[in-house]
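Hi team,

As requested, here is the filled-out complex form for the S-adenosylmethionine run. I kept the field names the same as last time so the parser does not choke. Let me know if anything looks off before we queue the next batch.

— J.
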Amino acid sequence: MEAENSEVAALVEKITGLHAAISKLASLSPSPEVDALFTELVAACVPSSPVDVTKLGPEAQEMRQDLIRLCSAAEGLLEAHYSNMLTALDNPLDHLGRFPYFDNYINLSKLEHDLLAGHVAAPARVAFIGSGPLPFSSLFLAMYHLPDTRFDNYDRCSVANGRAMKLVGAADEGVRARMAFHTAEVADLTAELGAYDVVFLAALVGMTSEEKANTIAHLGKHMADGAVLVARSAHGARAFLYPVVELDDIGRGGFQVLAVHHPAGDEVFNSFIVARKEHISTVGTIGCSWQHECIWTTIEGVADGEMSFK
Ligand SMILES: C[S@@+](CC[C@H](N)C(=O)[O-])C[C@H]1O[C@@H](n2cnc3c(N)ncnc32)[C@H](O)[C@@H]1O
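And here is what came back:
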């Protein structure tokens, strides 16, 4: 226990130092200095660690929340930079690997698809909320995993959508025709959410656990009964980079948790939760039984770090 505490203390001290350095940057746009600091931060947070961010003191909590905000802003600028750079090339889709976190999205979309496939056979319509200027998640699902699915990408930033449309415009007709982009704040989506078999909630939509909980409650109110939510979250030290989605908030939002995946290794940063919108008539009982009857098991032979209900 002693060793664990000192490991956590050393990690929090290192991340606090990186937060201080990042906070002093004049700009978060990609540059050798910005890239070096965020590369060091990711390298510190990705390895598995006993840190539980819910147990941090108030000062470290405040630092964490501000660091998530800085990471979100930097990720948006990084994606915009690479979206511009890629769409300036001939055949941009041949060069997507130039994006520093390309492998993360290739591996993450495969993991999410493989876990989803066990619960939703060939979804006809998928919404991706928080698609950004570089919509790799929905693009890779459309290109490699779900050849007949239509994707509606939502982002509150019209400039991000403009960049995303330009990039996807370079895809082949079969993919282009199945990818639509809409400028909207997630809180303003209502009836349209009822059309989807699956709704993805990007890691950076909702900066705090409270905002995540409110967004999930909003999705639960408007998604169709039986539809599936894939909510990206974070685990361990990665919770210094991204907000955490609480399982209780998934249950309170009217969903039953089907699977939780915490990626082992450094191939994928994001955890994610797969949950099904309960039929309103049963949510009173299922919601209650969710708290007591569901038993976590790790299914043999399934990817490391995955937990699903029996
Ligand atoms: C930087 S992108 C990351 C997504 C990543 N490209 C992917 O494929 O998973 C996150 C996007 O979420 C959008 N966003 C954040 N909060 C939002 C909200 N409340 N409603 C809609 N979009 C939001 C931001 O504008 C940003 O473009």
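Two things worth flagging: The two ends are 31 Å apart (CA to CA). The pocket of S-adenosylmethionine is lined by residues 75-76, 79, 105, 129-132, 134-137, 154-157, 160, 185-186, 202, 204-205 (CB under 6 Å).

Thanks,
J.
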